[in-house]
Amino acid sequence: EECTASGCKYERSSLVIDANWRWVNKGGQNCYKGSEWVPRFCSDPLECAMTCGVDGADYLGTYGIKTNRYRDGVHLSYVTESRYSANYGSRLYVMDSEDTYKMYKLKNREFSITVDVSNLPCGLNGAIYFVEMDKKGDWDGRSNTAGAKYGTGYCDAQ
Asked: What are the boundaries of the signal sequence (predicted)?
């Protein structure tokens, strides 16, 4: 909900998963293995952008992400076992439109969220946090044609 002096209204938003959770490939071959770009496809960032593609996402089957029955919340599974692999964690962004992230302006405003950690296993962190990102996900139409629509642009200097 977003509230003003005249009252509150329900806010519908969509979510996108961070590009780092998506498969980056060229014709079914990994462009990223372990923690490094595959030199055959990615000798430099521009070649990688021209050669490799970011796949879509099966939010429930691969990442364990689903809306609740009232469609006013989201459930995130930390571990999701699928036919081919296991996925650990996720990072989601709230969208303002199909191509842009929602930009929260929190100065002199109140923001609240309810996080149910009652089923969160010991040792795991059920956190929500804000990072500053480009509204279009660093989309520039040349080396980054994916943009916010595919969850690009994350930057966090913790």
From this structure: none
